[in-house]
């Protein structure tokens, strides 16, 4: 007998539309921008092909089809690519169900996309066996905005950044760093656009010192990232430029590594020293990461930022780190699952689902 489920999230009035602009960085670091507008109740994307052509747009994959009759909602999941094993397929099935019920417009991957050592090339069969053939639900046939994790750098990191993968699966979008900009519009009030959200995707792996130490058992693919000090500073400068220019209602930064965590990896000292000051300076609301194979929400009294870990897309590690500071821990779950985010003008709602698709935690930020 089928089990009746309660609504996944509070049922807000479905009267918002969304506009989106989109920045990526080309090989010499210059910003490329294209604007797409969601029109009326039909949710049609109107883009400027001539603008895209003039800018030489580096777009991988189709745009999210965001309907004017829905709030902005998306799923977040990391540390997943295990060819369906370690409950990856079960998590994928529940993501598909939740995505359909919420009407999610896209998926965010927080990195470690292919285990154990990334992809070997753009032709690696693991891309199909761990991605295309696993996330088959209709609701997941939309753009996947993806960052690299440390395991991805153990293979051919450039393969995941290549448009060749887009030709294999048009959902795929992966860059080292990029930015998404959304505008939420209230269709019940003459189409008033009264809230914005800027999302900054940030490549954290090059910042972790231990990965650069000589090691006979592993080799990281650092092509394009030397000399390291200059590359790291350039990445920080680009993020600072984007954050300082942002006037968004909500600012979200997404990276692979933790800043605050009570998981096995714990806090990332390098990110606390180099990244966190920028997030605090420019009033970032939320930092979302993977790396620790669990689900967490941390909000410390000494920091205005909410930290969400969603790194439980397949293999999870039981137990939490007994040596970490538990200050500000609002929730932690050491099993598989994923995060759903729903946004409207004055709020942002975060809901964790476990491997069975049950809600295990929900939290709402308001402005």
Automatic annotation (TrEMBL):
Cofactor binding mode and count: Binds 2 iron ions per subunit.
UniProt enzyme class: hydrolase
Molecular functions (GO terms): acid phosphatase activity; metal ion binding
Sections of the chain in a coiled coil: none
Keywords for this protein: Hydrolase, Iron, Membrane, Metal-binding, Signal, Transmembrane, Transmembrane helix
Membrane spanning residue stretches: 31-53
EC number: 3.1.3.2
Binding positions (Fe cation 1): 79, 112, 115, 293
Names of the cofactor(s): Fe cation
Family: Belongs to the metallophosphoesterase superfamily. Purple acid phosphatase family.
Descriptive protein name: Purple acid phosphatase
Organism of this sequence: Ceratopteris richardii
């Amino acid at each position: 007998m089928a089990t009746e489920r309660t609504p996944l999230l509070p049922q807000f009035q479905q009267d918002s539309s969304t506009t989106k602009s989109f920045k990526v960085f080309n090989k010499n670091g210059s910003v490329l921008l294209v604007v797409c507008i969601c029109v009326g109740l039909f949710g049609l994307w109107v883009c400027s092909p001539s603008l895209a052509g003039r800018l030489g747009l580096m777009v991988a994959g189709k745009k999210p089809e965001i309907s004017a009759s829905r709030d902005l909602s998306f799923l977040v999941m990391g540390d997943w690519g295990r060819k369906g094993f370690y409950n990856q397929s079960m998590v994928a099935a529940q993501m598909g169900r939740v995505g359909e019920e919420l009407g999610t417009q896209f998926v965010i991957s927080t990195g470690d996309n292919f285990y154990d050592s990334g992809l070997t090339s753009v032709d690696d069969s693991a891309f199909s066996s761990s991605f295309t053939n696993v996330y088959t639900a209709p609701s997941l046939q939309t753009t996947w905005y993806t960052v690299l994790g440390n395991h991805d750098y153990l293979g051919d990191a450039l393969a995941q950044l290549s448009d060749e993968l887009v030709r294999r699966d048009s959902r795929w979008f992966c860059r080292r760093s990029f930015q998404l900009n959304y505008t939420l519009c209230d269709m019940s009030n003459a189409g008033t656009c009264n809230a914005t959200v800027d999302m900054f995707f940030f490549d954290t792996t090059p910042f972790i010192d231990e990965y650069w130490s000589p090691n006979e058992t592993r080799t990281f693919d650092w092509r394009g990232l030397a000399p390291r000090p200059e590359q790291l500073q350039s990445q920080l400068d680009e993020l600072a430029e984007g954050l300082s220019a942002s006037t968004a209602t909500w600012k979200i930064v997404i990276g692979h590594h933790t800043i605050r965590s009570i998981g096995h990896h714990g806090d990332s000292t390098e990110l606390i020293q180099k990244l966190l000051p920028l997030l605090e300076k420019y009033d970032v609301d939320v930092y979302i990461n993977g790396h620790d194979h669990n689900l967490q929400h941390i909000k410390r009294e000494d920091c205005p930022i909410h930290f969400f870990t969603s790194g439980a897309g397949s293999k999870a590690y039981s137990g939490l780190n007994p040596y970490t500071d538990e200050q500000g821990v609002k929730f932690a779950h050491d099993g598989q699952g994923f995060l759903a985010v729903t946004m409207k003008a004055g709020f942002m709602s975060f809901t964790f689902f476990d491997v069975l698709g049950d809600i295990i935690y929900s939290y709402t930020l308001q402005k």
